[in-house]
Amino acid sequence: MNPFDDLALVEEEMAKCMKCGNCQAVCPLYKETLREAAVARGKVQLAYAYLKGELPATHSLAGKLLFCLTCMACVANCPSGVRVDMVVLAARAAMVREKGLPWVKKVIFQGLKRPWLFDTALKTGRRFQSLALRYRPEIQRCNPRFPIGLELRRVLPPLARKTLREEFPEVMQPVKARARAAFFTGCLENYIYTDTGRAVVNVLLANDVEVIIPRDQHCCGIPTLVHGDVPTAREMAASNLQIFQRYNFDYLVVACATCGEAWKHFYPQLLEHSPQGAAARVMAARARDINELLVQLDYRRPAAGLPLKVTYHDPCHLVRGQGISKEPRQILRSIPGLEFREMKNADRCCGNAGSFSLTNYDMSMQVQAHKVAAIKATGVDTVVTSCPACRMQLEDGLAQAGLSPRVLHVVQVLEQAYEKTGVGSRMSEVG
Amino acid sequence: MAGGDFLKELQAVLGPERLLTGTEDRWCYAFDAAAAQPKHLPLAVALPRSTEEVAGIMKLATAYRVPVYPRGSGTNLSGGVIPREDGLVISFVEMNNILELDIENLTATVQPGVVIQELNDAVAPYGLIYPPDPGSVATATMGGSVAESSGGLRGLKYGVTKDYVMGLEVVLADGTVFHCGGKTVKNVSGYDLVKLFCGSEGTLGIMTAITVRLTPAPEARRSMLAVFDRLEGAARTITGIIANKVIPATMEIMDNVTIRTVEAYCHAGLPVEAAAVLLLEVDGIPAVVEKEAAIVERVCRENGGQVRVARDDAERENLWTARRAALPACARLRPTTVLEDATVPRSKIPEMLLALERIARKYNVSIATYGHAGDGNLHPTITCDERDQEEMERVHRAVDEIFHTAIALGGTLSGEHGIGLAKQKYMELEFGASGVAVMQRLKQALDPLGILNPGKLVGPLPVKE
Ligand SMILES: Cc1cc2nc3c(=O)[nH]c(=O)nc-3n(C[C@H](O)[C@H](O)[C@H](O)COP(=O)(O)OP(=O)(O)OC[C@H]3O[C@@H](n4cnc5c(N)ncnc54)[C@H](O)[C@@H]3O)c2cc1C
Ligand code: SF4
Ligand code: SF4
Fold this sequence. Notes:
The complex is a heterodimer of chains A (431) and B (465).
Chain A: H1 11-16, H2 28-33, H3 40-51, H4 59-66, H5 73-77, H6 84-99, H7 101-112, H8 115-123, H9 125-142, H10 150-153, H11 164-167, E1 171-174, E2 179-184, H12 186-192, H13 194-206, E3 209-212, H14 222-226, H15 230-245, E4 251-254, H16 257-270, H17 277-286, E5 287-289, H18 290-296, E6 309-312, H19 316-319, H20 326-333, E7 339-340, H21 356-359, H22 361-378, E8 382-385, H23 388-400, E9 406-409, H24 410-421, E10 427-430
Parallel strand pairs in A: 2-3, 2-4, 4-5, 6-7, 6-8, 8-9
Antiparallel strand pairs in A: 1-3, 1-10
Chain B: H1 4-14, E1 19-20, H2 23-27, E2 44-46, H3 51-64, E3 68-71, E4 88-91, E5 98-102, E6 107-110, H4 116-123, E7 128-129, H5 142-148, H6 155-158, E8 165-171, E9 177-181, H7 193-197, E10 206-213, E11 215-216, E12 220-228, H8 231-243, E13 250-255, H9 256-266, E14 276-284, H10 286-302, E15 306-309, H11 313-324, H12 326-333, E16 336-339, H13 349-362, E17 366-372, E18 377-384, H14 389-408, H15 427-446
Parallel strand pairs in B: 2-4, 3-4
Antiparallel strand pairs in B: 1-2, 5-6, 6-10, 7-11, 8-9, 8-10, 12-14, 12-15, 13-14, 13-17, 16-18, 17-18
The complex binds flavin-adenine dinucleotide (FAD) and iron/sulfur cluster (SF4) (2 copies).
One iron/sulfur cluster (SF4) is lined by residues 17-23, 40-41, 44, 74, 78-80, 82, 84 of chain A.
């Protein structure tokens, strides 16, 4: 048993909350709404009341517990160290167990059916495209049971002409490999941001790392987990694990903050008491964010300069979820000619938070406005991050604010620098 | 109980978005930061945006005899915003505009929902500070802090909130709006109503605008940590520094239990064998800081203290980390953290610390004591588990004895956290029956129906039908 199967297992987390309200100072949703139910303190007390039978599972309770970015800003700032994200996820799962998934779907649909959403969406085709694109992979390819597919199918914008996995062979070897990495592409990099995926491959090869892209891999499953659909998430975790177990490699590399959390933390938790538990832990130990891996391997420093003015946005699930914030900055700063400008509150949530931005689009945009303002103040021409979901949110937000900075993944900037330097990938295809 | 008519009329004042009636929403306003207090769902939560709306709410509350519970961020530690009956919580968080910064007169006028830190951020570019700095400065509101007259780490030199409030706009129970005080540095006309409302904990009226005094930010500061292997040494240092005519901005003490707890939690390099440490900071003009720091250092050494002086900002930050870690370290020890606020005359600090050790043994509870030694304001912090009834019994008896001891030493029930629900039963200890009666007469005069935060501070005055 773990918190996803039994809310009582996070009772201690809830009991630890001393209701001090410190989370109010950092919660992006509290900042926008100023409502107690939106801040960690409120959500923890609601989940606790539900556990103790003081509050029944209702649509409005589900709505309150779904209203969370799981950005963990509260966790980082909590004197008692309450794992608010775990409490929220465990409570969502418990309610789905009690009431069934369709019931949660209804709550989500309520959000989706808001007239403003479709109205705005249809009026501005561009925005709608990105909206649909953002979620399409999770919905269609990854998890047909995920509740928000049909509505959007008719207006599907074009995805990448060729998916990343179609584009590359399964195994790519540099001339002389010093390590072997299996690349978990994640949905966004496979279907939409193939440019990021390509950069991962090229940069690894340029650093003499063999790259394997397992064919059958699919969505990490976290979108289902955050909606409390634990069985589906567990199924997807088990399946991905099984697929990756077929290969032989030193590192499992990801370039998405959420996928990284999935492999490092959620899979071992989800599979803890299954026969695959030990394997999940082994894989977790091998999982590396691309920034982390490059620094660990003492990546090749590019010699040629890139005349870019750059700022960096910390994805929540990288900076707080995995404690990675120095590495991407180190990589960026190692590029000659690149001017790095730190933005204010670089680790503040961009408001995407997976499907949160779909069900709460206007709130998501409100949260994002702070990010856009911080970026604007730096006057950079390029915003860099380490997560495709953040990238999508930032592109959307910057475009709507009439700003032009490009948004790239760290690894793409490094790739560009390598290209200028003339560091070839020198790969030979196998298989 | 007030019927649906009350809520219907309220809705007309506020609209549906700013009147919360759903169960889950109400649940989130049934508590505050005070540990081990009861929880009662309010009838509804109102979120006004203007003085007119507040007056409108109070007129309705008076007409329908509905008790109201003013609320800022709900960070108070005395149960001050816990609704006791099916009353109306009025949350001021949406009345959060800074109305005026008057740099010539060094004043700021704010709505009650402005967070203290936001005011500080707004005045910083002018080289000014708003000195009251409770540990909750990043979350607590101006209204809540005026109503509690909260203090903080700089209390010794800079005083508490009531020393900075110059003028107020207040809405009374019946909806009457009135002003008292103003921007003049001197103001002695009439009764000092400003002071009367400071620390009134929402029982006399509702502050809808607050004018406060600002002061120039100190040009320089010097922090140091003094380690003592005997409590007496630390105590003599506290009085010795003042006797040497130095008033530090901060003079914080941590006892052995706190030192060990903090050290286990964050490995700050604190001496776990020490009986106590003092964290001291002097601030002001560089030359004065230099001179005062030397005196402080000397007095510490004379009393057997080993002194570490922060050479730069990074080292200063390091020292402060240890003090700031006191609460989190305690909070992570056990699920429930009962943070008390016993205050004694400065000279009685060693006696109080020894008494706390004795009380901890007597009731077999864990008490970590830290606090603002310079102003005699200690925060004995009991770590426990609210779910363990037997343990909580002991905790409550220990708390009783802590306050009896503080009063016996010539102290007070609260240096900064207020009375609220939690300490209401001790009020007679400090004020005697006649003292409490005076307060009740004031309360009755201003709130004859007893609808403003009933049950708090002066005890329950029944809602009249
Ligand atoms: C971690 C932590 C550290 C703390 N550190 C300190 C400290 O160092 N020093 C200190 O003094 N306190 C401290 N406190 C206590 C608390 O933060 C202060 O009392 C604070 O001023 C309360 O502000 P609030 O906005 O949360 O008010 P609330 O808790 O919401 O309300 C406090 C009181 O004010 C009344 N009230 C609120 N708004 C109004 C209004 N507009 N008109 C009339 N009455 C009103 C309420 O009815 C209640 O009685 C700390 C608390 C925590 C949780
Ligand atoms: S900061 Fe932590 S302990 Fe404090 S109210 Fe928020 S969740 Fe609870
Ligand atoms: S995880 Fe983020 S959005 Fe959710 S309560 Fe914490 S700070 Fe707020």
